[in-house]
Automatic annotation (TrEMBL):
Gene3D superfamilies: 3.10.20.10, Cytidine Deaminase, domain 2. The active site is at residue 112. It is found in: Cytoplasm. GO terms for biological process: Mo-molybdopterin cofactor biosynthetic process. It comes from Acinetobacter modestus. This is Sulfur carrier protein FdhD. One of its GO terms (cellular component) is cytoplasm. The keyword Cytoplasm applies. GO terms for molecular function: sulfur carrier activity; sulfurtransferase activity. It holds the Pfam family FdhD-NarQ.
Amino acid sequence: MDTKTRGYETVQVHRFHQDSSENEMDYIVQEYPVALIYNGISHAVMMATPSDLEVFAKGFSLSEGILHNLSELYSLEIRHNALGVEVDMTISSRAFMALKKHRRMMVGRTGCGLCGIESLKQLYSELPLVSSKVPSLWLNQIPRAIAQLKARQKISELTGGAHAAAWVVKGQIVALFEDVGRHNALDKLLGHLAEQKLNVAEGFVVMTSRASYELIRKCAQYNIGLLATISAPTSMAIEMAKQLNLTLASFCRGDSFVLYTQ
């Protein structure tokens, strides 16, 4: 595996314990700047783990509403250089015009996550209501899925520094992606679902992070009916989940969880 894309690297460290220390190799999660370029124009630079970048770019494009579907993506090329990674995509004229309109409204992209939104009303009105139904049986499957996470998190097992997003069908994890950023991990998963043409009505998403509003927004954009997270939700995440008809379960640990919206 290419060391630039495996998701982790090794460094020499000095490990201290009480009055003793020793030199050893340690595993560190990779974090690189990844530029997402559409039709020759750089739209965003994300700090991400440089593994599974093709599905990451596809998932980002879909969850941000740039693409309606993957048929609007004509080509995708990944280039590594000394500064980071460039993902160069060619998209349809419709998608590119919509992207340029969005860019004209943006005053910056410095982590605010709401750039391009001109009013609070627009925050909700531009997202579709989730139409996927959530069978009550799925809630019973959450602890079963959570129990499978640790064995599937290869990068996190080595480094302790990666989030994971998993797709669960009938209580089984069928796909899992990791990244230093929780929203990046989700984009990788969504890109995989789109690439494999998996039916989102047949499963739900489990994540190792807190539930923040951007995860709710991305799931709603892709019509995911249920999001389950290990850590706490934010107030904005709960409110957005209610408004968008998305079921949110958090503090999913062991056999218990807290259901915030249904």
